[in-house]
């Protein structure tokens, strides 16, 4: 059953447990078309997507990335920043491709395009009653191995993967920051920002304490700092260089 736009956007939550059943082909086609119609910088469409249905490959990815959604979801979409296609096109026309992918803005352009494409897929899938979960660890855990497994050429790097399937759970909604912390009026900032953030920190701790699964006393701030500390060990600059994003300016 299709959801309204309001239900699609406001009831969305990440789904990490899926039924075994297949996704109807019409739903997959809708997701593919939504991906294709993503707005992109310059209409350059600096992204591509790999759709993965093969269970053996999904299991390899689950093991490599240590995220079980890869194997339990029916379908995985891998969102890539892609400057290979335009390079191929330029070569085919005998034109020289400027090394835009070696600039910070090139990296941003490809990353934003791929992220928006993922959001198109999320909205499309959710609106048809499917569940989704982004998997950012696909980017960070072992970029060299995953690039090899998926045959990524130079100029292409994995931004994020997305698991899609028929939901087997309806987890509680995660409380988000209140509107005044997210949407500022006319200029950056809000009064009493620190206090409001500490309020939100307590809201998340309460949510963690009382949630139906994985209850804990983790607060939001410490949890985030923990993730960032972990992220300090990722070798993303090196990984990006190896993918053909040399970040020179
Ligand atoms: C870019 C990105 C990467 C993410 N990576 C992962 C991941 O690797 N594993 C996971 O279980 N959830 C992942 N998530 C899901 C977030 O944990 C989730 O969106 C967040 O906790 C908010 O919960 P909600 O989606 O239910 O509102 C990711 C989300 C985004 C947007």
Q: Return the average pLDDT rounded to an integer.
A: 97
Q: Would you give the CATH topology of the largest domain? A: NADH Oxidase
Largest sheet at a glance? Answer: 4 strands, antiparallel
CATH architecture title of the largest domain: 3-Layer(aba) Sandwich
Ligand kinds: flavin mononucleotide
**Number of beta-strand segments:** 4
Please state the CA-atom Rg, rounded to the nearest Å. Answer: 20 Å
Report the total helices: 12
- The largest beta-sheet arranges its strands as 1-2-4-3
Order of helices and strands: HHEHHEHHEHHEHHHH
Hey, roughly how much beta strand do the residues contain?
A: 5-15%
* Corresponding CATH superfamily of the largest domain: NADH Oxidase
Unreliable runs: none
CATH class of the largest domain: Alpha Beta
The global form is globular
Class derived from helix and strand content: alpha+beta
Termini Cα gap? 48 Å
Counting structural domains, the number is: 2
Q: Helix content range of the residues, please?
A: 40-55%
Written account of the structure:
- There is one protein chain.
- The protein folds into two domains: 5-171, NADH Oxidase (3-Layer(aba) Sandwich), CATH 3.40.109; 173-233, no CATH class.
- Helices cover 48% and strands 12% of the residues.
- The chain has helices at residues 5-10, 25-36, 55-65, 69-72, 84-92, 104-127, 137-140, 143-150, 179-182, 193-210, 220-231, 236-242, and strands spanning 47-52, 75-82, 131-135, 156-165.
- The chain is globular.
- The model has no long low-confidence stretch (mean pLDDT 97).
- The site of flavin mononucleotide has 11 residues, from strand 3.
């Amino acid at each position: 059953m299709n959801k309204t736009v309001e239900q699609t956007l406001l009831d969305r939550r990440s789904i990490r447990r899926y039924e075994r059943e297949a996704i109807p082909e019409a739903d997959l086609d809708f997701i593919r078309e939504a991906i294709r119609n993503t707005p992109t910088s310059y209409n350059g469409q600096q992204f591509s997507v790999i759709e993965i249905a093969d269970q053996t490959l999904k299991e390899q990815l689950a093991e490599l990335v240590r995220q079980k959604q890869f194997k339990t979801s029916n379908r995985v979409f891998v969102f890539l920043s892609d400057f290979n296609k335009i390079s191929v096109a330029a070569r085919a026309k005998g034109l020289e491709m400027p090394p835009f992918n070696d600039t910070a803005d090139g990296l941003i352009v490809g990353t934003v395009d791929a992220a928006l494409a993922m959001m198109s897929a999320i909205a499309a899938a959710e609106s048809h009653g499917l569940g989704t979960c982004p998997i950012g660890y696909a980017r960070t855990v072992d970029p060299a191995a995953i690039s090899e497994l998926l045959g990524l050429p130079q100029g292409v790097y994995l931004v994020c993967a997305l698991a899609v399937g028929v939901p087997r759970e309806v987890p509680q909604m995660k409380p988000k920051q209140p509107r005044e912390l997210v949407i500022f009026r006319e200029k950056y900032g809000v009064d009493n920002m620190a206090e409001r953030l500490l309020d939100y920190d307590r809201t998340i701790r309460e949510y963690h304490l009382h949630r139906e699964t994985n209850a804990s006393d983790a607060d939001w701030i410490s949890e985030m700092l923990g993730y960032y500390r972990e992220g300090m060990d990722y070798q993303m600059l090196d990984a990006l260089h190896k993918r053909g994003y040399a970040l020179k300016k």
